[in-house]
Every structure is written in C-alpha cells, then in structure tokens.
Amino acid sequence: MRLSERGAIRSAIAEGGLGLFPAGRLMEMIKAGNPGDELKGDFDPQATVEKLRGARGPEGGAAKAVFDRDIGILAERLGLMPANYDIEAAFDMMLTVAPELAKRYYGVENFEAPRPKVVEYFFEGFSDVYKDGDWFAFNVNSAESAEMNVPVGTYFKRDQVSPGLPEFSAMHEANHAMQEAASLPDGFNHYLPWFDEGLADAFGRMMLYRTMKDEALMGKLRRFRTEVESLDPRKATYHFGEETASLLLLRGRLPFAKALMRARRREPFSVDWSTMGGLIKEGVDPHVAVLKSYVGSKQAAFQKKLDRDEKAFRKGPDLDASDLRALTMFLASERPACLPPEEYAAALWLASEAAKAPDPEQAFKISIAESDVPAEHKNGAAKLASIYFITKREEEGRIVYSPYGGGLPYRLGSGEIRCTY
Ligand SMILES: [Zn+2]
User: Fold this and answer.
1) Are 379 and 415 contained in the same domain?
2) Mean pLDDT throughout 290-299?
3) Of 121, 157, 178, 395, which shows the fewest CB atoms inside 10 Å?
4) How much distance in Å is there from the Cα of 176 to the middle of ligand 1?
5) Looking at the structure, do residues 91 and 71 belong to the same domain, yes or no?
C-alpha cells in the first residue's frame, strides 16, 4: 500500500526526539508553507522532504533555530522511509489472534473478526454520505450497517495510514466487533463513547502488547497519542474516555467489566452512563459508581444479576502483568514543561557542550564560564539558572554554569523539557 504524505510525516513525528510540543503542530507549519496542499497525496521521499524544507515556522532567533532542527530531524527520517507499507501484515496478525483475545477480554466464544478493507474514502463502493469523513478507520456494526447501507466490516482510509498505527487500529476496530457480541443491545445503535471507545483503546493496547511484546511500537503509539492525536478534539475525547475505562478496569477488574457489559446489553437505559463515567473519573469504585448511577426501578434485582455475573466471570482470567503494563503505559501521559525558545535553545547548547567531554564522569563535572556562553544563549542560560535547571557559582572571580548541577541534560534526555514556538 502506498503511504500518503501526511501518513508518512506523522509517522516521522511519532518517532520522538523533537523540540516542539506537541510536535504534531509541525504539520500545520508544513501546510502553511505549501498553501492549498493538505498533504493527502502520495508520499515520495524526495518530493515530501522538499515540502518540509518550505515549511513556514518562526522567522528568527532561538525559535527558528529549534524549528530548523526539528524539520531537519523529520527530513532525515522521511528521506529513509519506504514509500510502501504492508498494512495487510497488520491485518493478518490481528485475524490470527482475535478469537483467543475475544474469549479472554470479552468472554466471547467462536469470534471471527472481519478482515479490514482499505478504502480511498468512507465508504468507497457502497455509499458517499460520509465521503468527507476523515477518520483513520471505522468499524461498521450491524445496526450502523442497516442505518448507513454499508456492509458490516472494518474500513481503513488509505491517506490516514501511518506505519505503526494500523497494528493498533486493527485491534481497536476488532474490539468494536467483539463489543457487538458482548455488550451492545440488539437492534439499534447504542453508542457510549467513554465505554466503547475507552475499552476499545484500553483492550486494544493490551491485546497488541500481549501479541507482539514490541516496546518500540508501544512507545510510538504513546507519542502518536500525546504529540499528534492530542490536537484532534475527537481523539482527545477518546483519550479522556480511555482514562475512564482504564480506571474502571484497574479498580473494578476484568470480571466486573465483563459483567457490566452484560448488564448494559440487558438494560442499556437503566444506568445513567455519563454519571457513572464521571464518578469513576472522580475516584469512586466502579461497583459503587454503577449503583449510584442506576436510574431503573428494580435496583436490587439489577445488583443481584450483576454480582452473579461477576462471580461467574471470576472463574475466567483477570488482568495480568502484561495487561497492567500496557494499561498504565497510556495513563502516564503527563505533559512536559514547555520552555520558551530562547531557554530551550540555550538548554540544547549547554547539553551539547557537556556532551563534548570524553567520558560521563567528566561531563558531569563540566562547568562553563558565563563569559564563554555565545551571545544568543546568554539570556536563556541566565533564565535556566534562575529556575535551577542549571546551577551557577562564583569561581575565581567569574560566574560559571554547571549543566548537570540542576540536572538539565537529564531533564532533556527524559523528554520532560520541550519547547513552544
Ligand atoms: Zn473506535
């Protein structure tokens, strides 16, 4: 499958290591330098790198220096990226493991996932009603199939594909098909974003990690989430819901989540699901939250069935170490400190000076005279000292800075300092 330019650029962004936070904003700057181009055309390493070189960023000073560095990193990655991507391999992987995963996470037997189709637009060949839809992928369930006149199945939009994402998205969309079997009421489209998307994201990541154990891929997915998708309001609601669903799983555990799905299938309107999600987010135990959100007339009977189902599901699997790893990986998404360009550029310079020392012990002890700091970094260095990201002291009548004193290279290396421009 041929990648699109935006798919390739986002993939390069999600490799990390850029100054700007969130780095997904670079997409807007590249578009601004190529007016009218939405970057949906085919990716060609040379031609796309040319477009990057024309990106419109900050005009001068430290911001320009950091921006130029970011664009340089992306250009190098894109220059080496193959223009074709084997999305079918991601589908094969999902189809192989889906039956076993449906059993483990949803209690669904004999599950068969539909093989995803790659389309140019939604829903090419069937209906043009959602031709403008710009989602990454879409799972059409039975109720939606009847409403939209599109066959049941999973559809991927080709120009949205970024290497690394389909592996996860194929799992996410398969979760929706599993949900149809386990938690959706029959006959109408009952869509509950925090529950459906939240669990599809949370379980999808657990399933992917269990299947592939690929740490680099999980890291890339995390950066897609924090750097690129956080800028999209629709995806940001998914992340909010994913956190709620993750808290449901961490506090309530898997047997309770399965029992809750069954209760929803039975009585979708007996629970005020928004209130329940809000209570979980606030810290309430999900067993308590569901009862506090009960709006039907037979609470005792509802609770009895829920307890009975949970007890039965306890005979099956619960979350294990692999699940908890994957789940908590995506809860750890605290935003980094975003320094102004002048300070960030000075931080990069100070760290690069320290890195010139031949061994770590010498780098650790290095001090730089204030008078040796280049003019363009003097203000930035002084500000970094004022917030104790570097230390300063008087030595033989002159002021010196120690980059490691305030832990600056560690702050940069761990990604906890980034830049806004
Ligand atoms: Zn979804």
Assistant:
1) yes
2) 97
3) 395
4) 7
5) no
Give residue 187's pLDDT.
85
Domain that holds residue 44: 5-80
Q: Does 127 share its domain with 206?
A: yes
127-172: pLDDT as tens digits: 999 999 999 999 999 989 999 999 999 999 999 999 999 999 999 9
264 and 136 housed in the same domain = yes
Q: Contact, 13 vs 227, CB < 8 A?
A: yes
Backbone angles phi, psi at 219, to 5 degrees: -60, -40
Q: Are residues 402 and 277 in the same domain?
A: no
- Rounded to the nearest angstrom, the distance between the alpha carbon of 418 and the centre of ligand 1 is 30
234 — pLDDT class (breaks 50, 70, 90):
confident
Ligand 1 centre to CA of 195 (Å) is 10
Find the 125 Cα to ligand 1 centroid distance in Å. Answer: 22
Average pLDDT on 64-87 reads 97
Q: Tell how far the Cα of 200 is from the centroid of ligand 1, in angstroms.
A: 6
Q: Tens digit of pLDDT for each residue in 358-407?
A: 999 999 999 999 999 999 999 999 999 999 999 999 999 999 999 999 99
**Could you tell me if 290 and 343 lie in one domain?**
no
Contacts of 238 (CB under 8 A, 6+ apart): 193, 197, 198, 201, 229
Task: Decide if pLDDT at 34 tops 80.
Answer: yes
* 12-16, 240-244, 301-305, 333-337: range with lowest mean pLDDT: 333-337
Q: How far is the CA of 140 from the centre of ligand 1 (A)?
A: 10
Shared domain for 163 and 254, answered yes or no, is yes
State in Å: Cα 172 to ligand 1 middle: 6
Among left, alpha and beta (phi > 0; psi -120 to 50; other), residue 267 is beta
Same domain, 139 and 249: yes
Q: How many Å lie between the centroid of ligand 1 and the Cα of residue 143? A: 15
Tell me, in angstroms, the distance from the centre of ligand 1 to residue 284's CA: 26
End of a domain among 27, 47, 80? 80
- How many domains does the chain contain in total? 3
Of 304, 329, 354, at which residue does a domain stop?
329
Helix (H) or strand (E) holding 153: strand 153-157
Quote the pTM value. Answer: 0.89
**CA of 199 relative to ligand 1 center, distance in Å:** 9
Q: Separation of 29 CA from ligand 1 center, angstroms?
A: 29
DSSP string, 228-240: IGGGSHHHHHHHH
